[in-house]
C-alpha cells in the first residue's frame, strides 16, 4: 500500500476533532438545558433532542457539501453571496423575520428557525476567496481593487446591524480584513479600513444606550449586580465554583435559572463549572488544535500555489477562531457581552448546521490534496 493510499484510508484528524467538539456540545447542552426544558416544555431532554435533530440535518447537508467539487464551490460563490444578501433582506421584512429579545435575526422554517447571518459568513468566505484569486494583482497594487469587497462588507454590515446583530458584524468584518491582509492588500489600506471600521463601531456603541450599558457592565459588573451586570456575575460564579476539576457533570447550580442563556451563549460557563479548569482548558486546546489544523491545511495549499483553497481555509479558520475567542471571552469577562455562539457546542441550530457544512467543505479540500499525488502517479505510469 502506497503512502497516498494509506492517507486516503485513514480518518482525517480534522474530522476527529470536529466530532470531539460536537460530543462535548451534546453533553454540555443536555446538562445545561435540563431544568429549562423541564419547566418550559415538560420534557427535560427537549433542547438536547432538538440539538440532535439539527446535528442530523447538519450531517446530511455536510455529506451533500462534501460531494460537491471545489471547482463548483468556486463557480457558485457569487450566487451564494447573492443568496446570503437576499436572506439578510428577507429576515428584516415584518411578518417574515422572527423577533426574539428585540432582535429580528431568524426565519421560521417548518417548526425550526434559520439564522441568515450564519450562512452569510460561509458565503462571504467563498466569494472573497474567489475574488482575491481573480483580482489578486489589482488588490495588491491599487486601492480600486479593495473597493468592491469593501462595498459588499458595508452592505452586509448595514443589514446585520439593522437586525441588530453586532456580534456577527464584528466576526464578518474581522474575517474579511484578515483575508484581505493575507491576500496581499497594502497595509496602509487595510489599517485605514480597520481604523475606519473601529470608529464606526465605536459610534454605534455610543448611539445605542443598551450597547453602552453592556460596555459599562463589562468594565464593572458589580456596579449593577441585579441589572446589566447580573449575567456576567453569574457566569463568573460558575467559573469559580468549578475550581480545578468541577462539581461533576449534571451538578451545576448556575444552570438552575441563575445564569440566563445557560445553554446558548454561556454554555461554556456551565461546562467550566461542571468540569473545572481542566475541562475548560481541554476544550480550549481542542479548539486551538482544530483551528491550527485548518491553518496548516491552508499553508499546504499556499505552498502548492492553490490560492482559492488556501484563502478558504484561512477564512474558515478565522471564523471558528474568532467566534470561539469572543464567546469564551464574553463568558469569562474578558470582552463585552455579545450574542455569539460557541461553534459545535452552544445550542443553536443554524450555527451547528453551517459548522457541519463548513467542516465538510474543509474535508473536501483536504481530500483534494490526496487526489493530486494519485493523478501524478498515474501520469508517471502511463509514461
Could you characterize what this model shows?
This protein is mainly alpha-helical. The protein has one domain. 73% of the residues lie in helices and 3% in strands. The protein contains 15 helices and 3 strands. The chain has helices spanning 3-9, 13-32, 34-41, 46-67, 70-90, 116-134, 136-141, 144-162, 166-182, 187-207, 209-219, 230-242, 267-303, 307-331, 349-382; strands at residues 98-100, 103-109, 112-114. Strands 1-2-3 form a 3-stranded antiparallel beta sheet, with no helix packed on it. The longest helix is centred in the last third of the chain and has 37 residues, at 267-303.
Number of strands: 3
* Rg, Å, rounded: 22 Å
Number of helices: 15
Overall pLDDT level: 84
Biggest sheet, open or closed, and with what strands and sense?
Answer: 3 strands, antiparallel
Which structural class should the secondary elements be placed in? mainly alpha
Report the sheet-strand fraction: under 5%
Number of domain modules: 1
Model regions low in confidence, pLDDT < 50 over at least 5 residues? none
Helix content: over 70%
Q: What is the general shape? A: globular
- Give the termini distance in whole angstroms: 21 Å
Q: Which sequence of strands runs across the widest sheet?
A: 1-2-3
The ordered string of helix (H) and strand (E) elements is: HHHHHEEEHHHHHHHHHH
